[in-house]
Amino acid sequence: MFRRQLLIAFVTLLMGSGCATNRGRLHAPTGPHNRRSIVPLTVKLRDGFTNETVTIKVNGKEVYQKSGVSTDLTISFADRVEVPVEESTVQLEVAVQGGLRKTEEIRVSETPFVDVWILDGKMDLRASKEELPML
Fold first, then answer.
1. CB-based contact 56:101 (threshold 8 Å)
2. Whether the model pTM is above 0.85
């Protein structure tokens, strides 16, 4: 909950300053009529990760890469990333090095939470309106 409040405060601060960034930083066009709202897309890696190298891309841009990603089976959770996006719809790609890869269109304005599961050798991206609780 604290991370979400911190993200909202950060996004609010950046929207007010009209800052521009690159590679993981926000781009907010200047001028009152050009400003877009920034929405956080939350991607949670859930079950099925065993010491994996995972890459996440949004609209072709890498926003996450980490080695050693493993699921904590007591809570069905491996890791999470929050990505500020301006677009209402994005292409989300999640890939495990040397293994599974899945790309889906996500309507961030409608379903800003995505849980990634690896079950029975298949990757599943589950978008939802509300954040799913941990087990």
1. no
2. no
Q: Write the pLDDT tens digit of every residue in 85-109.
A: 999 999 999 999 999 999 999 999 9
16's enclosing H/E stretch is: helix 2-17
For residue 47, what are the CA distances in angstroms to 2, 11, 44, 78, 110?
24, 29, 10, 7, 24
- Distance in angstroms (rounded) separating the CA atoms of residues 48 and 123: 9
DSSP state of 132: P
Is the Cβ–Cβ distance between 106 and 114 less than 8 Å? Answer: yes
**Residue written as token pair 């909202």:** 8
- Residue 56 identity: I
| CA–CA distance, 55 with 100 (Å, rounded to integer) | 11
In this structure, what are the phi and psi dihedrals at residue 51, rounded to the nearest 5 degrees? Answer: 50, 50
